[in-house]
Design a protein that fits this description.
This protein has 571 residues and is of the alpha/beta class. It folds into three domains: 129 residues, Glucose Oxidase, domain 1; 109 residues, PtsI, HPr-binding domain (Enzyme I, Chain A, domain 2, Orthogonal Bundle); 257 residues, Phosphoenolpyruvate-binding domains (TIM Barrel). The strands form two sheets. An eight-stranded mixed beta sheet has the order 1-8-7-3-4-5-6-2. Helix 7 runs parallel beside helix 8. The longest helix is centred in the N-terminal third of the chain and has 29 residues. The two termini are 35 Å apart. The structure holds phosphoenolpyruvate and magnesium ion. The site of phosphoenolpyruvate has 10 residues, from strand 10 and helix 19.
């Protein structure tokens, strides 16, 4: 038996056989292209060539800026490879005469080039074959797009074990009969972890090399409570965990009697307690929880696992279902936060060359770059609830200009709808996520232009502490009780309240029962938590005194280290 400690990403326990996902295995099948589709196949290859050339332009530009001319010259080599007839002409010839798919023709051409290189005696030139592969891989990725869907091969209920899982992979896990998952990479607030909680899949991430240690069929236990996995467990240990599973179920049941009760502290301070909505599967259980509404509707799931964006009609139907289920309670529609670790198959070429995607074209930045996409989403949201109260939340705002541009687009979308005779929405509230330090620091300059704010703790902590939320190596530094985090949160609440703007908080922090006292004491008006933790947080809230929490936070603000703050605030 072997116990490996990782990071608890999603609670509960899974016991079962492993399904090990082979990492980055590229399977290229030979397909026969019908005669009338040959032209299209050739165009497809040419488009991939163009995209790869554009990748090279961007890389060259970056290399020139950061490394200088000598390094940028390397890109010239890549460009030469890309225009080499052995690749371009040969691939086109094969598609045309042998009627094979572009991927297959390319992989054959690359193999031929590789063999030619292997015969070269001069080591320097022989090693240039890596450049050929580099270029080949770029080309292939443009041709194939990501998503070989290895997860569809999970046939018996299993625990998925992988080097890494993307959020879009995670969305498929429920259908893929997964019991839970364990990955080498990842952090607690990665979108993969967030979705695991939404789908109620126990998960442990950041396990360094677990995917190398197991083979499909080996038994393991995922302990999402303690953040560890057990390989080859003994029958006694399995029995212990089966009992633990039953106990956890009992604990959940005991919380059920809180469903109809108000989210109010012992001394009568009401706090709006809402849930996040990350995947459509959650809606039913959220409705059964009797919450105060949806505080964060992460609409980006609608854009996942597809190659074309959802139409206005499709989005409208999805939003209407949520709105109707929750009415008359509020739903905060966050416009899609695509980018970062939520890369889609929609083919945004900017994303293929980002070396730092969390600081890249993400959230509102992407939508201001592609305003048509933004408009379609706004139309779908605005049409959803002409009679009700619509709340729109903008992710990843970092400057006032972005907010003003977004407001202009919102206004023109509303005018457009009015011209089309769509009944006007009675009331639209607009909010921004406060998740980038620039906004937290200069919040007063944004407040006149918004109706509410929502603190996105996942990103705010990541950017404030410079700790990548996906990186298990620095996960120990990701600390919601860091004095800088506590002070920043305090500053945000004070500034917003001085202008009478309500403050919500979302992200994973409020779902951690250890933080309830801190957030209540800071004076946050509403918490949006994961459905799974909703009743536990309500229990916490109801056992707290607002006055005592406020006093404790005042003291905490004077402390200089996380351990002392935790001691004071964790009950
Ligand atoms: C956050 O950053 O806290 C947040 C809620 O947004 P997301 O986790 O979707 O980036
Ligand atoms: Mg965020």
């Amino acid at each position: 038996m072997l116990i490996i400690k990782g990071i608890a990403a999603s609670p509960n326990i899974a016991i079962g056989p492993a399904f090990v996902v082979e990492d980055e295995e590229i399977v290229i099948n030979q397909l026969e292209i019908p005669k009338n589709k040959i032209r299209m196949e050739i165009q497809r290859f040419k488009r991939a060539l163009e995209k790869t050339n554009r990748d090279l332009d961007r890389t060259e530009h970056r290399a020139l800026k950061t490394l200088g001319k000598a390094h940028a010259k390397l890109i010239e080599t890549h460009r030469l490879i890309l225009s080499d007839p052995l690749i371009t002409k040969e691939v086109l010839r094969r598609i045309q005469s042998e009627r094979v798919n572009a991927e297959f023709a390319l992989s054959e051409a690359l193999e031929a080039v590789n063999q030619a290189f292997e015969k070269i005696e001069d080591e320097f030139f022989r090693e240039r074959r890596h450049d050929v592969f580099d270029v080949g891989k770029r080309l292939l990725s443009h041709l194939m797009r990501r998503g070989k869907k290895p997860l569809s091969a999970v046939e018996v209920p299993s625990i998925v074990v992988a080097h890494n899982l993307l959020p879009s992979d995670t969305l498929q896990l429920k259908d893929a009969r997964a019991l839970g998952f364990a990955t080498d990479l990842g952090g607690k607030s990665s979108h993969t972890a967030i979705l695991a909680q939404s789908l109620e899949l126990p998960a442990v991430v950041g396990l360094s090399d677990v995917s190398q240690r197991l083979k499909t069929g080996d038994t393991l236990i995922v302990d999402g409570e303690q953040g560890l996995i057990i390989l080859y467990p003994t029958p006694e240990v399995i029995e212990k965990y089966v009992q633990m599973q039953a106990q956890l179920q009992l604990q959940d049941k005991a919380l059920e009697n809180l469903k109809g009760l108000e989210a109010v502290t012992r001394d009568g301070k009401s706090i709006q307690l809402m849930t996040n909505l990350d995947a459509p599967e959650e809606l039913k259980s959220i409705a059964a929880l009797n919450t105060d509404g949806i505080g964060l509707f992460r609409t980006e799931y609608l854009f996942s696992n597809r190659t074309t964006p959802p139409s206005e009609k499709e989005q409208h139907e999805a939003y209407f279902r949520v709105f109707k289920t929750m009415a008359p309670k509020p739903v905060v529609f966050r416009t899609a936060d695509i980018g970062g670790d939520r890369i889609t198959d929609l083919g945004f070429e900017e994303h293929s060359s980002e070396s730092n995607p969390f600081m890249g074209l993400r959230g509102i930045r992407l939508f201001l770059h592609y305003p048509e996409l933004f408009k379609v989403q706004l139309r779908a949201i605005l049409k959803t609830a002409p009679q009700g109260d619509v709340r729109i939340l903008l992710p990843m705002i970092s400057s006032i200009e972005e907010l003003i541009s977004s407001k202009k687009i919102l206004k023109s979308t509303m005018d457009e709808l009015a011209q089309e005779g769509v009944p006007p929405v009675k009331k639209v509230e607009l909010g921004i996520m406060v998740e980038i330090p620039s906004v937290a620091m200069a919040l007063d300059t944004f407040l006149d232009d918004v109706d509410f704010i929502s603190i996105g703790t996942n990103d705010l902590i990541q950017y404030l502490l410079a700790v990548d939320r996906l990186n298990e190596n620095v996960a120990y530094l990701y600390d919601p009780f860091h004095p800088a985090v506590v002070r920043t949160l305090h500053q945000i609440v004070e500034t917003a309240h001085s202008k009478e703007k309500p403050v919500g908080i979302c992200g994973e922090m409020p779902s951690d029962p250890k933080t309830t006292k801190l957030l209540v004491g800071l004076g946050v008006d509403s918490l949006s938590v994961t459905p799974r933790m909703f009743l536990r947080i309500k229990r916490n809230l109801r056992s707290l005194s607002f006055q005592e929490a406020t006093k404790a936070v005042k003291q905490a603000l004077l402390l200089t280290d996380s351990a002392s703050i935790r001691k004071l605030l964790i009950t």
